[in-house]
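F.,

This is the one I mentioned.
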């Protein structure tokens, strides 16, 4: 006999995953049910339904887009999956958290590919790509494609944190352009490095950009003859 509250169509409120509807009752240990919000179908038990203890792995709980999905990866199963989870969550926050975007304008317009909304897909890619030497590494989206705004398997890399930091510094530096003594137009964004590589004086080159001198060792501004 089917309990009165377990007939098809019966609704239960879960703890944090919205309402769930009974689709089929076979035994108290085998009930097929569907989450109203996402349409996810699960097999559960009557005691779990009544206590609201059924979880929807497809409910987007990170910034309204990220969900755990069905598969072998869970957020804290091992150090590697926990590392993948933290990276995944931070990636989504950079793109979809209003608070984060307000404090970091460089991520304006950034998005995450739909397949990486599912943690299972991201974790599989991340763990396969992560070096096993115990070093510090970051997820990078614009080394392969400069100026890229999309996080995806085809546009991202795992790179050393030191390298990523240096790239970030370079991207924030102002791009400057000069004409060399040979007449070549040269652009650069690392002022000190450029001076070192071309045997130039930092102070004298700064005066050139401020308009205090016309040339420094034959180098000049593009609008000077």
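My design for it:
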């Amino acid at each position: 006999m089917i309990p009165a509250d377990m007939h098809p169509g019966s609704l239960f409120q879960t703890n944090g995953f919205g309402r769930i509807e009974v689709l089929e009752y076979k035994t108290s240990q085998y009930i097929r049910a569907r989450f109203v919000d996402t349409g996810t179908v699960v097999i559960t038990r009557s005691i779990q339904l009544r206590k609201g203890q059924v979880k929807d792995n497809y409910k987007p709980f990170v910034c309204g887009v990220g969900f755990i999905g069905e598969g072998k990866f869970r957020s804290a199963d091992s150090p590697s999956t926990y590392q993948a989870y933290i990276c995944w969550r931070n990636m989504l926050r950079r793109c979809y958290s209003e608070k984060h975007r307000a404090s970091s304008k460089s991520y304006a317009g950034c998005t995450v590919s739909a397949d990486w909304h599912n943690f299972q897909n991201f974790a599989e890619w991340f763990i396969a790509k992560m070096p096993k030497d115990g070093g510090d590494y970051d997820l990078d989206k614009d080394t392969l494609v400069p100026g890229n705004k999309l996080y995806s398997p085809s546009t991202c890399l795992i790179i050393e944190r030191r390298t990523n930091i240096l790239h970030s510094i370079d991207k924030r530096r102002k791009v400057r352009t000069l004409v060399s003594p040979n007449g070549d137009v040269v652009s650069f964004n690392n002022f000190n490095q450029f001076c070192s590589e071309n045997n130039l004086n930092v102070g004298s080159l700064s005066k050139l950009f401020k308009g205090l001198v016309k040339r420094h060792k034959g180098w000049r501004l593009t609008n000077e003859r």
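The helical segments are 46-51, 79-96, 98-103, 119-129, 161-172, 191-197, 202-210.

Talk soon.
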